[in-house]
Amino acid sequence: MARNGEQRDHRVRGVAARAGGWSARHRWAAVGIWVLFVVVAMGLGSVAGRVDVSEDDQLKGETSQAARIIDDAGIDEPAGETVLVQSKDGQLRATAPEFKAAVADVVRAVEGTGKVTAVRSPYAADARTISKDGRTALVQFDMRGDPDTAADRVEPVQKAVAGVADDHDALRIEEIGAASMNKTFDDAFGEDFQRAEYSAVPVALGILLIAFGALVAALLPVALAVTAIMATMGLMGLVSHLQPMSETANSVMLLVGLAVGVDYCLFYVRREREERMKGHDPQTALRVAAATSGRAIIVSGVTVCVAMAGMLFTGLAEFQAMGLASLMVVAVAMVGSVTVLPALLSLLGERVEKGRIPFLHPTKRRGGGNGANGESGSRFWSRVLTVVLARPAVSVAVAVVALLAIAAPALGMKTQNLTLDQEFGDSLPIVATYDRVNAAFPGGSDPAEVVVKADDINSADVRAALADFRAQAVSSGASRGPVEVTVHRDQNVAIIDVPLVGGSDQDKAEKSLALLRDEVRPATFGEVDGAEAPITGQVAGSKDFNDQIVGSVVPVFAFVVTFAFLLMLLSFRSLTVAITSIVLNLLSVGAAYGVLVAIFQHGWGASLVGAEGVGAIIAWLPLFLFVILFGLSMDYHVFVVSRIKEARLQGRTNLDAIRHGVVTTAGVVTSAAVIMVAVFSIFGTLSMQSMKQMGVGLAAAILIDATVIRGVLLPAVMALLGERNWYLPKWLHRMPDLTHDEAGMEPAPVPHEGGEEVRV
């Protein structure tokens, strides 16, 4: 800490300060290098193309093993479609002439499109697609061509089926299948996602206009975030040849990139503006912003990157893609914030205040004047802090009890992959068709698929095992049939389709799956030498995914928490700050979990956010939220604590430093949080329950973190700890010194006993 009369060392140290200084001196070079980087990254990514995660890569274990066997054998499983024919009033049976005529019309209509093959009537000799009550029948067929693009060719078939339905009023005639479901979802939600992504930028810009009160200043963060996202899209194409990417990773990258890109620029620009409003010349203001906010951006960015890297430990290709894409966009935004941003601010100078908006610019706002000691800050948070710092113990107790109460429902969290009716409710007619097929033929919509690979699929022992498996699948109670066996003799592969008892009820269906895996399979294929029989399908995939997510929780948590702790320890050289950082972030994440469970599992207040209680949280969300929130909440923590540490280095008392740090960052943290909450809330408006859960969970967590955690709990805890905030054991003093860079910072004015101000 600087003392009166001590000579301050003005040598600039720290990567951020040096980068900012170089950029300010070589303004056009810095801007040119950034533009060239963005253009080259996009160009190379476009030339390289993007490799997306394949079904083989999605999961480990049996699901991946089954997919690999099918791929290695060169078996192309066609996209299967089904037409449900069902009596509307329950009176008409499949034996009725009108019912048979409708089935014949369906067969004739779908064949007439020329888009289908292998049409199978429920009245064929070997068919088992008439329900036990005789009121429902299924016409089945396959789409011609590549199954991956079948959704693009299914529309004529859907129109043909709809035409038959119009001619038979007494019957319900509806199509369902992989192609028709994919087309329905793409039509319903493709534009939904696109609209949400496109609206995120205007929303962020609108909030920034209110925060800055000037058009140019508001455009800078958006420009930085958008160019960082553009560059990362190109880099994703290059990296995808090593780690496949996905559309989900693209959406997450956009969300995270917009959030951190805007945040980092917002913190930097606000600090530069604050220094200019104190009367400093533009060069000094920029130097201070680089040494303080720039350093905080690097600490925060590295911490967020470490958190995102935690996703790489899941072993799940989709998570690894999201983690790598998020890590890259944060790194790009961080580099841009400490390089091209200082250059732009140096070029613009006072022109950054161009396009002032009446009544919104700080110089025009009422109450935007100076506070104590000439500090500008939030009057609201100043009042809150007066109460918090006067009674820190009470404030800690109240805040912790409130957060634990909010987090309490998370103790009963249930995770699973949502079924179709849970995911979409009654918003799509095809969901009702799915339920009707499952009611008439339990498990028929999503049968388990046993992929049998043997040295000789035609050998007597393999044929006997196939027959035994088919019989025991029903006798064990796992299935009510029909169990279909398709043998590919040339490839020595057989595929067994087993409708599971439980159907769309995930819990019951998983019990049926367990019977097949743990009892039926060992009893039938266990003694066949050289035979593999992995079981896949929708239920198996969901179960395997959930198991793998649960298994990766401990290593991901341990990695993220350990490295975040070490980064905080190195950055602030305080064991206390490192520990409190982790504890406060975990409280924030726990509260977010509690909100999720209360709304989406129990349905408490679900209608207020346009959702409904579906009895479970989507399996991937808790781990995803932990990683994202742990990273993003560190943004606020690093910036607030950095400002408090800076004030202590300038000679302020502990309480005064806390007040100064929180009040002077309150406005920018609030603006950043409002942007994040607004952007995440947009995704909470989508029709898919999983997207609603993600949007609401992220928005609620950021809101709690920016208010209760940073505005109440953090200052109260630091007030209670006093000088122990900066405790570092002697044996840790040999650590690298990455603490705050004081170079170029003006001393803080401190009131003298005689009423005059002195500087320290």
Task: Describe the 3D structure.
The chain has helices at residues 15-25, 27-48, 55-58, 62-73, 97-112, 155-166, 178-212, 215-239, 247-277, 282-309, 317-338, 340-348, 379-390, 392-407, 420-424, 429-440, 460-475, 506-525, 538-572, 575-601, 621-649, 654-683, 689-721, and strands at residues 80-87, 116-120, 136-143, 171-177, 415-416, 448-453, 484-488, 493-498, 535-536, 617-618, 749-751, 757-759. By secondary structure, the protein is of the alpha+beta class. It has a four-stranded antiparallel beta sheet, sandwiched between helices. Strands 7-8-6-9 form a four-stranded antiparallel beta sheet.
Quick recap of the structure?
With about 750 residues, this protein is α+β, with helices and mostly antiparallel strands. The chain contains 23 helices and 12 strands. The strands form 4 sheets. The chain has a 4-stranded antiparallel beta sheet with strand order 2-3-1-4, with helices on both faces.
